[in-house]
Amino acid sequence: MKVTVDQDKCVSSGQCVLNADEVFDQRDDDGVVVLLDDSPTDDQAVNVRNAAAACPALAIDIEE
Amino acid sequence: MSDTLTAASDVTADVPEYPMERDARCPFAPPPRMLEMGEARPLSRVRIWNGTTPWLITGHEVARALFADPRVSVDDRKDGFPHWNEHMLSTVNKRPRSVFTSDAEEHTRFRRMLSKPFTFKRVEALRPVIQEVTDQCIDAILAGPQPADLVTKLALPVPTRVISDMLGVPYEDTSSSSTTPMSGSRALRLRRTARRAP
């Protein structure tokens, strides 16, 4: 699994951190998404897919 | 584009009125007619107070796609914006601009001013405060007269006290503060409620 994020699209909703806090974080100043790990393990795959599905800005892309 | 979307001439007379009546037996659920429309198709015309017929979006996938589409606007100053009522239309230029009524760069500027205190971690860090406030309200309900009103004893004081805490405004000052989203009289009632509590 390969993950990319678009910080320009991000609306700082934090849904990604709620779903997968080992893969995503938020910038301290404005809550914009920070990608911690662009190649999550299989164990994290479900959480990362949930994060992408929950993102209201469609700012998370996953290549399986 | 907005003329096309709201013109009444190109739609038939059976366009349903909006907002729709809710089922009195289940007042917190969306109106039954709206649920039926949502099952039939993700986008439908509805007729609002001023006779225009904007789109009602009921489909989840469509809503997600439109939220991320820069051609969609929430700017309430634009022609054809479906205002809630005549009052909202007549005061549109008197209300301050906000994150809720702005698009694109203006929206982003507002949003980034607001997002710092609402990151996942900062909201999660409020958990002990929210728990403590909720516990105090429930203790007060249990110690007070029965039955209790959950709105005045729980639903209003919990968010008001949490907001006070976030803003750094002492809860006792809520009634005189214009920075809370509550009206003065409502906040005053809350304060009185709080003072009666043990």
Concise summary:
The complex is a heterodimer of chains A (64) and B (198). Chain A is an alpha+beta fold and 64 residues long.
Written description of the protein model:
The complex is a heterodimer of chains A (64) and B (198). Chain A has 64 residues and is α+β, with helices and mostly antiparallel strands. Chain A has a single domain (2-63), classed as Alpha-Beta Plaits (2-Layer Sandwich), CATH 3.30.70. Chain A has helices at residues 15-19, 42-54; strands spanning 2-5, 24-26, 33-35, 60-63. In chain A, the strands form two sheets. Chain A has a two-stranded antiparallel sheet. In chain A, strands 2-3 form a two-stranded antiparallel ribbon. In chain A, strand 2 and strand 3 form a beta hairpin. Chain A is globular, with a radius of gyration of 10 Å. Chain A starts with a strand and ends with a strand. Chain B has three domains: 1-72, no CATH class; 74-118, no CATH class; 120-196, no CATH class. Residues 176-198 of chain B have low confidence and may be disordered. In chain B, helix 7 (127-143) packs antiparallel against helix 9. Chain B is extended, with a radius of gyration of 21 Å. Chain B has a two-stranded antiparallel ribbon with strand order 1-2. The longest helix of chain B is centred in the C-terminal third of the chain and has 17 residues, at 127-143. Chain B has helices spanning 2-6, 32-40, 60-67, 86-90, 104-115, 120-125, 127-143, 150-155, 157-167, 184-196; strands spanning 43-45, 55-57. Chain B contains ten helices and two strands. Chain B is mainly α. Chains A and B meet through loops of A and helix 5 and helix 6 of B.
